[in-house]
Write a structure and sequence with these properties.
The protein has 278 residues and is α/β, with parallel strands linked by helices. It has 9 helices and 7 strands, in the order βαβαβαβαβαβαααβα. It has a 7-stranded parallel sheet with strand order 3-2-1-4-5-6-7, sandwiched between helices. The longest helix has 29 residues.
Length: 278
């Protein structure tokens, strides 16, 4: 049986673990060769080994998405290795400078520049350097945003601004790339329990149960949930979909907040052992 991405090539930024790791494994499972672009060489190699142990094909390239030369090298390395790019999954986010948490009065200019660069400029550069190759293959770009692109949290100016911008960039890129045969879409995940987040919840299982109550499906998400959505948007089944922001959040954002607040308050009263995560 021919796998749906047989003969295709996929780049996943931040593909070593978490959401990106799940996407890399999913695409390899479906026959694509996968370039794992990650700043953490160790986790990238571990995921590569996992993919290969399952019969997939993967390579790694050290990539700091805040650096233009790294993104250009990521693209050039992929072309050198496999001669084509069909899918560009722009997932990586990590800021190593000042903390990006805080309000407009609290965030430093350095933190703003650093955070917005990784959240938005990296996506622009990925499309810039990979664009001509994607046009050749009539491929797809998937940008990873968040439910934070629609709903905002206090003291999170940089992240909320960046993830909102990703949605706008996706729509604009879809207009430019569409006539060239390239589709551009966006995924907006809810709370996804990655390897690192699972470690935190292991120390507070009652807090995770409380989080589950926020979701109509009564669970939080997994990297596989996001990988499935990305796979769909890159497939021929989604050939008439572009510029779309697909919310994958178990129903989190569809709820009236007043009702949700009362429901969560009742849950906390009925479960006094609950340890709140923050």
């Amino acid at each position: 049986m021919i796998k749906k991405f047989e003969g295709k090539v996929c780049i996943v930024t931040g593909g070593g673990q978490g959401i990106g790791g799940g996407i890399a494994r999913k695409f390899a499972q479906q026959g694509s060769k996968v370039m794992i672009a990650d700043i953490n060489d160790s986790v990238a190699k571990q995921n590569k080994n996992t993919i290969e142990s399952l019969g997939g094909i993967a390579q790694t390239v050290h990539t700091d998405v805040s650096k233009s030369k790294d993104i250009e090298n990521m693209v050039n390395t992929t072309i050198s290795e496999w001669g084509r790019i069909d899918f560009l999954i722009q997932n990586a986010f990590g800021v190593s400078d000042d903390s990006t948490g805080g309000s407009a009065m609290e965030v430093t200019e350095k933190a703003w520049d650093s955070g917005i660069s990784v959240l938005t400029k990296a996506l622009f550069l990925g499309a810039k350097f990979a664009g001509k190759h994607l046009i050749e293959t009539k491929g797809s770009i998937i940008n990873i945003s968040s439910v934070h692109g629609f709903m905002v949290a206090p003291k999170s100016l940089v992240y909320e601004a960046g993830k909102s911008a990703v949605i706008g960039m996706t729509r604009q890129m879809a207009c430019d790339f569409g006539p060239e045969g390239v589709r551009v879409n966006c995924i907006c995940p809810g709370h996804i329990v990655t390897e690192n987040i699972q470690e935190q919840w292991n120390e507070n299982p009652s807090g995770l149960k409380f989080f589950d109550q926020q979701y109509p499906v009564r669970r939080t998400g997994t990297p596989e949930d996001i990988a499935n959505a990305v796979s769909f948007l890159c497939s021929e089944d989604a050939s008439f979909i572009t510029g779309h922001s697909l919310v994958v959040d178990g129903g989190l954002t569809i709820q009236i907040q007043e009702n949700l607040g009362i429901s969560l308050a009742k849950y906390a009263i009925e479960n006094p052992e609950t340890e709140f995560p923050f």
